[in-house]
Amino acid sequence: MCGIMGYIGHRDALPILLDGLRRLEYRGYDSAGVAVLGNGHIEVRKAAGKLARLTEVAQTAGLLGSVGIGHTRWATHGLPTDQNAHPHSDCTGSVVVIHNGIIENFLSLKEALVARGHTFRSDTDTEVLAHLIEEALAAGAGVPLEEAVRRAVAQASGAYAIVVLCSDQPDRIVAVRQISPLIIGLGRDETILASDIPALLAHTRDVLIIEDGELAVLTRRGATIQTLDGAPVRKAPVRITWDAEMAEKGGYAHFMLKEIHEQPRALQETMMGRLDAEGRVELDGVAYTDEQIRALQKVWVTACGTAYHAGLFGRWLIEHWAKLPVEPDLASELRYRDPLITPQTLTVAISQSGETADTLAAVREARTRGSRILAVTNVVGSTLAREADDVLYVRAGPEIAVASSKAYITMLAAQAMLALDLGRRRETITPPRAAALIQQLKALPAKAQEVLNREDVVRRLAERLAAADHVFYIGRGLDYAAAMEGSLKLKEISYVHSEALAAGELKHGTLALVTKGTPVFALVTQRHVYEKTLSNIQEVKARGGDVIAVAYDGDEEITKYAGTVLRIPRTDDMLAPVLAIIPLQLLAYHVARLRGNDIDQPRNLAKSVTVE
Ligand code: F6R
Hints:
It is a single chain. The protein has 19 helices and 25 strands. The strands form four sheets. The chain has an eight-stranded antiparallel β-sheet with strand order 3-2-4-1-10-9-11-15, with helices on one face. Strands 5-6-7-8-12-13-14 form a seven-stranded antiparallel β-sheet. Strands 17-16-18-19-20 form a five-stranded parallel β-sheet, sandwiched between helices. Strand 19, helix 13 and strand 20 form a beta-alpha-beta unit. Bound molecules: fructose -6-phosphate. The site of fructose -6-phosphate (F6R) has 14 residues, from helix 10.
């Protein structure tokens, strides 16, 4: 989720690049850099931290030229340092590359390049591209930059957008899109490139949207687009009518809605390069050995809020697939009792920000008791990531809305991979079962998109629920874990009181609160407890409760019990929460919207809670 800028025209490139990067700041970043081409020579400046640092460094250097590229980085490989900031250069300094996304096979490419004599200056996956392009250009005289880029990307796998500048071919910028977004703005005698529309609006409203598998050559006079096979692509410019604020949110009314809709792509990125068809899991950043995993006696899962709810899902999967007892523990509670954490324990700490004070304190407590620490986090280089032995990045991209959505869903996918890995190493899950689950995991992004396509049903339901005072969520097993997250979403942004209960617990007290018309969401994706949950739904109906089910497509039985059914595509029951949470996130969003609340910044809440 990096920010990308490119400029070729008649004006000074540097101020335009810096202004564009500033307009992409809302995407979040940890370092930034620019490269400007002038007098046949490329000058690069980069800086970790705030954009103000880069601005100072670049302005002091007085970079002059009317061609350039710029980048804000959200680290995925390598810490956020000056060195790892983009652009990255080849050995000669005549090719520079910026990149958004992941090159999955970068390690093997890097090994081969080093063996052929290339010198690397960063830990990033991006740098391999600069060296591959260098080789392609050196293969013969007069190789056009676009051809060299095409040869380089043919060797790389992954999801990315890349932008390349070469001092020997100063009349062009070459860009390729493979999943990560790229947009070209068409100005008068100037062409501008960005990863997102807000960075272009100060210059033009006429844009070309690059699609996956397309390569663009930008010149001062416009852009030509071709496929990666070299076939020309004709496309008409699109006129953007959004105002600047709408553009930041990708046309959505709120960051939260944008982030909910980004979930299919986020899931894809979480799993990218980590799963293979033979049922193997390759978790970059996780360094435990088979021996260490076989010696484990217990797993502790600790986190707060939404991340804790994600941990409840992990508990089920690790117990089921890796046959290890798992203790989920709220981070704020863990350290104030006497947790029986030992050196034979693995502590899994989950945190979007990696800075939550309670979670960090729990991790330090576990550490003093000799436990290995595995962090599941979204922020590269966060305190949690730095203190952990193993780090599993969820790769959700920057999450701006206070109420978490895409971070939660990617925490689920990351833990599913972790549980599979533990199960494979402990030989408690067979290779065919693991392979079947991997197939199901890989199908989740498309299924998540199907759920999002059904938003209208949820929007209508929200109208019915907008005036409710109390809402209940029930489910058994993994449905209970998802119910807890659905309930938290509703209360934190809509301010409607809600409670989640294990469905079997309802009759032990809370049923007293269910009267005529009380909305009760019943999640029924877990087949082994399906009939039992139906009995609990009957208890609600008998008191006049308004039952809304979350159920699989094709489950006709449920329509006899629930007045409204929110449908999700079928998947393995163990993965169902990944899909079941989506209609509940959307419901919370639409109820909050109808109640006129400040959705992205709900009252009394902060994105990252750095006090205990
Ligand atoms: C709710 C929410 C919070 C966080 C919690 C932990 O939508 O976002 O409950 O999940 O404060 O934050 P992280 O994951 O940053 O440790």
